[in-house]
Amino acid sequence: MLTKRIIPCLDIKNGRTVKGINFVDLRDAGDPVELAAAYAEKGADELVFLDISATEEKRKTLAKLVLDVAEQLNIPFTVGGGISSVEDVDILLKNGADKVSINSSAVKNPELINQLSEKFGSQCIVVAIDAKNIDGNWKVHLVGGKVPTDIDLFEWAKEVEQRGAGEILFTSMDHDGTKKGFANQPLARLSEEVNIPIIASGGAGNIDHFIDTFQKGKADAALAASVFHFKEIEIRELKGHLKNAGIPVRL
């Protein structure tokens, strides 16, 4: 059985790590290079770096900062934010990223997924999907959750898999930063409807939430930010509890 992954997420704005609630009310969470080094040492399986204002500000991800972070790591490293071309991905991979995460650009130009997976391999293409439950239907949102669409979460997930994405990073905007648990119902449905790994994001508040998202949400990986940044949960302790619950993890 494949081990489940624990992934800290560094949301970056103006070169600093930040964390908000429901995608707003951001507060400073520290230096990304220092945090990355600490997570690699503390047993994280992977690290995600999201330049959360790159798309909104219509600029590229901070390649130099990516290089500085990558030099601290011995674990897989995914970078997202403002990526809209093969050239963008080429620069980030050369600066030390192992995978890239695309979101708004994939919705605006779905063919980009095909191009990237053909050029670099599906194993390094993650499609991030931010969605909100509106009248019982999960709808995709763009530009850091600021732009709603009529696109259905599950239909879009199936399309990105068909186009060559290697993983889906699903963030429930309703759960983001609330610390009330992950969105396990749509996660479980995603897991049934697509065959690529699903990373759960949004809502981690305690260790039981991680156990639930692996058992009830059928997630392949769980991503969190503030509970790790502010040392509310230590990764090694979390993994010990997961193992005791019968969930396979890398210790």
TrEMBL record:
Pathway: Amino-acid biosynthesis; L-histidine biosynthesis; L-histidine from 5-phospho-alpha-D-ribose 1-diphosphate: step 5/9. GO terms for molecular function: imidazoleglycerol-phosphate synthase activity; lyase activity. The keyword Mitochondrion does not apply. InterPro entries: Aldolase_TIM (IPR013785), His_biosynth (IPR006062), HisF (IPR004651), IGPS_HisA/HisF (IPR050064), RibuloseP-bd_barrel (IPR011060). Coiled coil: none annotated. It is an enzyme of class 4 (lyase). It comes from the Bacteria. It is found in: Cytoplasm. It catalyses: 5-[(5-phospho-1-deoxy-D-ribulos-1-ylimino)methylamino]-1-(5-phospho-beta-D-ribosyl)imidazole-4-carboxamide + L-glutamine = D-erythro-1-(imidazol-4-yl)glycerol 3-phosphate + 5-amino-1-(5-phospho-beta-D-ribosyl)imidazole-4-carboxamide + L-glutamate + H(+). GO terms for biological process: L-histidine biosynthetic process. Its EC number is 4.3.2.10. The active site is at D11, D130. Keywords: Amino-acid biosynthesis, Cytoplasm, Histidine biosynthesis, Lyase. One of its GO terms (cellular component) is cytoplasm. Belongs to the HisA/HisF family. IGPS catalyzes the conversion of PRFAR and glutamine to IGP, AICAR and glutamate. The HisF subunit catalyzes the cyclization activity that produces IGP and AICAR from PRFAR using the ammonia provided by the HisH subunit. Heterodimer of HisH and HisF. This is Imidazole glycerol phosphate synthase subunit HisF.
